[in-house]
């Protein structure tokens, strides 16, 4: 009688050579993510011609070395590390990444940029990640949150970023961008991969501050305001470039 597939898998996993090869493969993946991918993203970003809209608030904050919570949709993530490094200079940032394997890989990429990472998401470990990010904001770092990640629904703000602003007293700065040429993946959020040498518009929305004494109704009001702002920024960036919006 032939062994079941699951039993075969257990037999293979117990093989020392297979474990060794898996460990080598994992090390190669982490090396590529930490060193090669950040370099590739920097080269991609440098090839794109950016136009900045409504950035006075963030420029003033940068000049005074004051912190912000940058908030953008999950599908706009790819260019944001480059944009931040170019825009904020020597200031550092903390980014939330999920506890999944994908989150581990994203942490490697962010580490390659020198960023701090708080592990957690709306579905698992979120409260601990918010506490970690609040502590880093208190140390003077910025923070970045993709409020519809890591699994959606797309363009739906989860409450974590509102809670982070309330706990820290730091304003939320909504942001979005679009590009003239891009590829969209067949993922839950139709993730955007900008084409090299395209044109881009990055648009900031008005900052949102969550009062320390905000109750549940007030938090929900501000959550909806942030969601609407981010959706509007998508449309504005597309309109300014003359491309089709979401």
Which features would summarize this protein structure in a list?
246 residues, 7-stranded mixed sheet, 8 helices, alpha/beta, Glycerol-3-phosphate (1)-acyltransferase, two-stranded antiparallel sheet, 9 strands
Description:
By secondary structure, the chain is of the alpha/beta class. The protein has eight helices and nine strands. It has a single domain (5-241), classed as Glycerol-3-phosphate (1)-acyltransferase (3-Layer(aba) Sandwich), CATH 3.40.1130. Helix 2 packs across helix 5 (101-112) and helix 6 (126-138) runs parallel beside helix 7 (160-168). It is 48% helix and 17% strand. Strand 3, helix 5 and strand 4 form a beta-alpha-beta unit. The strands form two sheets. It has a seven-stranded mixed sheet with strand order 1-9-6-2-5-3-4, sandwiched between helices.
């Amino acid at each position: 009688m032939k062994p079941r597939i699951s039993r075969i898998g257990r037999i293979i996993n117990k093989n020392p050579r297979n474990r060794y090869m898996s460990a080598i493969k994992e090390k190669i993946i982490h090396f590529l993510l930490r060193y090669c991918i950040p370099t590739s993203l920097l080269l991609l970003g440098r090839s794109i011609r950016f136009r900045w809209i409504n950035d006075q608030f963030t420029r003033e904050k940068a000049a005074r070395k004051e912190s912000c919570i940058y908030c953008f949709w999950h599908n706009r993530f790819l260019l944001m590390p480059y944009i931040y490094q170019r825009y904020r200079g020597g200031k550092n940032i903390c980014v939330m990444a999920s506890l999944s394997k994908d989150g581990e890989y994203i942490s490697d990429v962010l580490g390659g940029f020198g960023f701090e990472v708080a592990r957690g998401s709306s579905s698992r470990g979120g409260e601990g990640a918010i506490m970690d990010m609040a502590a880093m904001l208190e140390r003077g770092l910025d923070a970045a949150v993709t409020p519809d990640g890591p699994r959606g629904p797309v363009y739906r703000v989860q409450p974590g970023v509102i809670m982070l602003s309330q706990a820290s007293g730091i304003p939320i700065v909504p942001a979005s961008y679009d590009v003239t040429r891009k590829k969209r993946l067949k993922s839950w959020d139709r993730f955007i991969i900008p084409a090299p040498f395209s044109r881009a518009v990055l648009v900031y929305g008005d900052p949102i501050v969550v009062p320390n004494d905000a109750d549940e109704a007030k938090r929900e009001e501000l959550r909806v305001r942030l969601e609407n702002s981010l959706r509007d920024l998508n449309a504005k960036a597309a309109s300014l470039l003359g491309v089709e919006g979401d």
